[in-house]
Specification:
heterodimer, A: alpha/beta, 2 domains, 8-stranded parallel β-barrel, 4-stranded antiparallel sheet, globular, B: Fumarate Reductase Iron-sulfur Protein, Chain B, domain 2, FAD/NAD(P)-binding domain, 5-stranded parallel sheet
Chain lengths: 464, 437
């Protein structure tokens, strides 16, 4: 049984690395305690600060192929509850759940005294750590807070240093992705003395427009405003930004990974990219706190199957596998292999290769690979409607089908021209059947060579 | 037992494939893989672009979806309900090949069609101005409706002659009520009418309208006369009043004023019409319904899913049973053994000596194949027949008499609605091309 206990950023202890991210699920003590009962290892409290007023509505989402909330957008601000109530509840939670991590997310005006005061208040209430919210891209940023701070490295460093002057607990800086190079801000946070980084906050977004009313979502009395985007759709962006800071020597700090984590697989990916803990919000908003059960169980089972006893056993293992493009081997070659016994004849790979890739998949198994027997998509489409069919009465007509050795008629099983295939993966990506198209390595007979090496060799020869 | 039709019929014949809820339709549409050059479209006799119309349902473009269907098949609504999709589009769905449920293409098509008809039923094109040459269609069934629609799209004036009082052919008179109701069939006819097609009811060509009149007025004629009443079996007692023809029985309960059904009913035949009649007899209140077929389950021409459904409805099957006489109190039969294969490749049934027995019943329904309008077709119109069917050029649907084209049951011997539509469409396109030349 894998051990999921975690010690993060120099002293934050928790039974597992799954934290509720600062947001609606961690709005009050009652929620946080129920979350801990469900199995969450920690919670980052909904951001504390001077009380604000929220609007309605606040959320909007992007559905994809009838899956709800592939992406979620919000225009909600920081907590709208009085500070003393939040602080009292933090104390109560910590008393009842001493083994769980409670992190106070903070956002106040950019004045040293304001920051010093809220740091003291949060720590006095019993918070195990602080997360400086330099990331919220909507509303608060207009007032000079949130991402307005996180988009300027100097401000980030300055405010972090104010906090560090008084903080007794670990200080995490939460980074905004709405920036050209996240490493600049990460380095600034490190200069300011941060103990860890949380990445990423939400991404600026407008999710869509109601095509009846022409009002963008979410609709606030006929108007809308840009919000912060999160949920499964943002995971690849978040994973990249985590990799950026994890691989950067100058910003190297413990990382709490955030962004589209909805199950144990994404959690494993963030940890493989170097994250020490992971934070979840949208998935808990979608399905409730109970989803953590499979996150723990799935991660634990995967670790057992891989032989990892603790999270440290695999943390960061995939980081060295990300290199700059110029260091990739130009002489590594794979090609697509279609396994005809698995092919169901949808021919999506065929049209994808013709229209979207390199025109090297053909429908010519019946006419033979040699010569010009293959048909183009246009020819196939013309042929399909140019003949009259009849409803088959199998028992009277005899079952007539262009038989072959496979369940799918031979004419519908595409063929890869292996000399032309560039190994782009597109066919395997569109194929709906697992294991039907595999990408297989072929020996090019050439030693590994990167673009850097090739350019260097050309340079030596005096050519370009 | 006889009673008045009305609400009761709708209850007794609740739809066998109810419409999809809008959200269920969206979910189902999203399951479609959107195959390239899809096998479902290939399997459809009218080659509806199935993935295209399903994709449009998925994107919420229901009008575009419906118009795409209607462009390929003007009777898209009735086909969506009556097509044997298991052996056509859904049977060809690639999802079968990895143990997944095929896409419910028929119900999705109905979803798009229901939207179309409940939102004004407006086609995208207006009929072109009429050309000088006029065309007659004989019979107002699916083949003629499809043919007329193609011709109207190309600017030809079309008149449809129909001997019965209502249009739609078997869609109105012959399809099982739990698949398609006459009102739905007539709604579809209205769509064809909206293209400017003229209908003349109660007009039999050959008697009410002479062939000379027809040829004087019309540059070309499309024959879609269908098939005639059931062939007599030549059984003693066949003339008795409790013996009825299956299609007559179905037409009566669907459109006539009174409905009669026996307590115990024997249906002779093993085809889809026999099954429709047997199911109808049960739903109309018969206590016991027997289907009597001289060969075995294996040779029965009915579709497998129709057979399975009939068993669920409660029809009792008497295989390898040959009727030899109709008695006032039942059907006298003899048991059959299957011998060597005959011309059709099916094993030839032979009577078992001294195996006579009686199936008690007070109604006998004959469903053993329909007669042909041989005299009219060959003597009056001089079109070539083979095995009782009109011979046509498979590319164009043209008969041996160049002014005449043909399609539907009188050509194919009695197949599906969608086959009739495909043949009507083919002939309509070919006639316009010939007349344009």
């Amino acid at each position: 049984m894998a051990d999921l206990t975690t010690v993060f950023a120099g002293g934050i202890r928790c039974p597992n690395p799954f934290w509720l991210a600062s947001g609606p699920p961690a709005n009050c003590g009652e929620q946080v305690m129920r979350a801990f009962d469900a199995g969450w290892g920690g919670a980052v409290w909904k951001t504390l600060g001077d009380p604000i007023v929220n609007v309605s509505s606040r959320y909007s989402s992007v559905d994809w192929n009838r899956q709800r909330m592939m992406g979620l957008n919000n225009i909600e601000l920081i907590t709208d509850r009085p500070l003393h109530v939040n602080l009292r509840e933090i104390s109560e939670v910590k008393k009842r759940y001493p083994a769980h991590a409670v992190i106070a997310s903070l956002m106040v005006e950019s004045k040293p005294e304001a920051w010093r005061q809220i740091v003291r208040q949060a720590e006095d209430a019993g918070a195990d750590g602080l997360e400086l919210n330099f990331g919220c891209p909507h509303g608060m940023s207009e007032r000079g807070m949130g991402s307005a701070v996180g988009q300027v490295p100097e401000y980030t460093e300055l405010i972090t240093s104010w906090v560090k002057e008084v903080a007794r607990t670990p200080v995490l800086v939460k980074l905004t992705p709405n920036i050209s190079d996240i490493r600049m801000v990460a380095r600034a946070a490190k200069h300011g003395g941060a103990d860890g980084l949380s990445a990423i906050n939400t991404i600026n977004s407008i999710t869509g427009i109601d095509l009846d009313t022409l009002i963008p979502r979410p609709d606030v009395g006929g108007q809308s405003s840009h919000g912060g985007y999160c949920g499964p759709a943002v995971k690849p962006i978040a994973l990249h930004l985590v990799q950026q800071i994890a691989a950067d020597e100058a910003s190297r700090l413990p990382i709490s990974g955030i962004g589209g984590i909805s199950g144990w697989q994404e959690a494993a990916e963030f940890i493989l990219m170097g994250a020490g803990t992971v934070q979840v919000c949208t998935a808990a908003m979608h399905y409730g706190f109970r989803i953590v059960e499979d996150m723990l169980d799935g991660l634990s089972n995967w670790m057992d199957s891989k032989g990892y006893r603790t999270l440290d056993d695999f943390r960061g293992l995939s980081l060295p596998r990300i290199v700059e493009w110029k260091n990739l081997d130009l002489n590594y070659k794979i090609i697509a292999r279609i396994h005809p016994e698995r092919c169901i004849g949808c021919d999506l790979c065929y049209t994808a290769c013709w229209d979207g890739a390199h025109q090297c998949i053909h429908l010519d198994r019946l006419t033979g690979a040699n010569g010009n027997g293959h048909r183009t998509p246009a020819e196939v489409e013309r042929a399909s409607s140019s003949r009259i069919a009849n409803t088959p009465i199998a028992k009277l007509d005899g079952a007539g089908r262009d038989a072959g050795p496979y369940p799918t008629p031979l004419a519908r099983i595409p063929r890869v021209d292996e000399d032309e295939c560039v190994g782009c993966n597109l066919c395997a990506l569109v194929c709906p059947v697992d294991g039907c198209i595999t990408m297989e390595q072929v020996d090019t007979g050439r030693p590994p060579e990167t673009w850097s090496q090739r350019v260097a060799a050309l340079g030596k020869g005096g050519q370009c | 037992m006889s009673y008045q039709p009305g609400e009761d019929i709708a209850q007794r014949f609740a739809e066998i494939h109810p419409p999809l809820e809008p959200q269920a339709a969206l979910l189902e549409a999203h399951r479609c893989l959107y195959c390239f050059d899809a096998p479902c479209s290939d399997a459809c006799p009218t080659h509806i672009d199935v993935p295209r119309f399903i994709k449009k349902i998925a994107t919420g473009n229901l009008r575009g979806s419906a118009l795409g269907i209607l462009d390929a098949n003007i009777l898209g609504a009735s086909c969506s309900r009556v097509c044997p999709v298991d052996v056509l589009c859904e049977g060809a769905c690639v999802l079968h090949l990895y143990n997944k449920q095929p896409i419910e293409i028929g119900r999705l098509q109905r979803h798009a069609m229901d939207y179309f008809y409940s939102n004004g039923a407006k086609l995208a094109y207006l009929p072109r101005p009429e050309k000088a040459k006029r065309i007659a269609c004989v019979g107002a069934g699916p083949a003629s409706l499809a043919c007329a629609a193609e011709l109207r799209k190309r600017g030809y004036a079309v008149t449809i002659f129909e001997s019965r009082p209502l249009p739609g052919g078997l869609n109105t008179y012959g399809v099982a009520e739990y698949k398609l109701r006459p009102s739905d069939s007539l709604r579809e006819v209205e769509l064809v009418k909206s293209l400017g097609v003229e209908f003349r009811f109660g007009k039999s060509v050959g008697s009410d309208v002479t062939v000379e009149e027809l040829e004087r007025t019309y540059a070309a004629v499309f024959l879609a006369v269908g098939l005639g009443p059931a062939e007599p079996l030549g059984l003693p007692g066949e003339e008795m009043s409790h013996v009825v023809d299956a299609l007559r029985f179905i037409a009566d309960y669907k459109t006539a004023q009174t409905i009669s059904v026996g307590r115990k009913v024997a249906v002779i035949g093993g085809g889809n019409t026999a099954i429709d009649a047997a199911n109808a007899a049960l739903r109309l209140g018969a206590d016991e319904v027997y289907m009597v077929y001289r060969r075995s389950e294996r040779e029965m021409p009915a579709f497998q899913f129709e057979y399975e459904n009939a068993k669920l409805e409660g029809v009792r099957f008497r295989f390898q049973t040959q009727p030899i006489a109709i008695q006032p109190n039942g059907l006298e039969c003899v048991r059959m053994e299957l011998g060597a294969p005959d011309q059709s490749g099916r094993r030839k049934p032979e009577p078992v000596p001294r195996s006579n027995f009686l199936i008690e019943c007070d109604m006998v329904i004959l469903a053993v194949g329909q007669s042909r309008f041989l005299d009219f077709l060959s003597a009056c119109l001089a079109v070539e027949l083979r095995d009782g069917n009109v011979v046509v050029d498979p590319e164009t649907g043209r008969t041996s008499n160049p002014r005449y084209y043909a399609g539907g049951d009188c050509v194919n011997g009695g197949r599906e609605v969608v086959d009739a539509v495909a043949e009507g469409k083919r002939a309509g396109i070919a006639m316009a091309k010939w007349l344009d030349a």
